[in-house]
Design goal:
1 helix; elongated
């Protein structure tokens, strides 16, 4: 799959790198590292972001661990 992002979602820099590894997710004052996630890191500001497929993998991992994230409504 090619990079769906052309620039950083925060600072709009075009200097972004694809990474595969543990992605940190903060839930209830604790940080969980979700393994084997493909995401992007901006080399300019450090922002981490990912596509929807990998967000679904994180959701499935958290559900499997009985961890819940409050909805953003």
């Amino acid at each position: 799959m090619s990079n769906p992002f052309t620039c950083c979602i925060t600072c709009h820099s075009e200097k972004i790198n694809k990474v595969r590894g543990a992605f940190p997710v903060a839930i209830h004052d604790k940080t969980w590292k979700v393994p084997n996630i493909e995401y992007y890191v901006c080399t300019q500001c450090g922002e981490k972001f990912m596509d929807l497929d990998n967000e679904s993998k994180i959701d499935a991992y958290l559900k499997n661990k009985n961890l819940h994230v409050a909805s953003k409504s």
